[in-house]
Amino acid sequence: MKWARAKKEDGSVITGIIAEDAFHPRTGLGSEIEVGGPVPLSEVTLVAPVVPGKFIGLWNNFKAAAEKGGMEHPTHPLYFFKADTSLAGPGAEVDIPLSAGRVVFEGELGIVIGQTCKDITPDQASDAIFGYTCVNDITSLDILTADPSFPQWTRAKSFDGFGVVGPVIDTDVQWQDLTITVLVNGRERQSYPASDMILTPPQIVSLLSQDMTLNPGDLIACGTSIGARPIKPGMEVEVVIDGIGGVSVTMTGPDA
Description:
This protein is mainly beta. Helices cover about 15% and strands about 40% of the residues.
């Protein structure tokens, strides 16, 4: 199933399933209870498919990138948090503040949690994963490394709109079969297989659940591989994962 959130013409936001060129509203993410009849897709605008309580991002979780950077493979997720106000959805305009300096895209696979879990095994974690989505974990490199005494992961990744998610959450895809691709102004700039992960989605969820309780709707970006590049105002940046779709945003700013 492809789950999504959408804004209707009256401004209200609905959650439901996309099927047969229509949006089928439900009472909430994962619910089987219908709310009214189907709405033509032409009458809604997709927004981020989930509003996460926790928006977690991983670093150094792909073998190719670790090898290129001369880094050891982590045995536990190396993670940070993105602010809830960093969330953006399909078709958004994302402003690059002057204070952000040099900014890069990072196309990633996102895990959406479907049930409350704490101290679970990888097998249990597989059942706790609701589905997968596309993420663009936009990052200010200049801010991240500005202070040598303290890498500023949260600030570098939490500007408004720097957490692009969508277009849907797919509950049927097999993560190991997926390829994450990024297009900038229609030109491919990043492409890598999800199967190159160091820690797999079930391992990620299991290990994070040792640190904190994970709740339905929490979002985990699995990290990126080689190929992340700088982006500037005026560029259209799209993260595409076959089976899930593509989420595109337009970068704006003083130079646009």
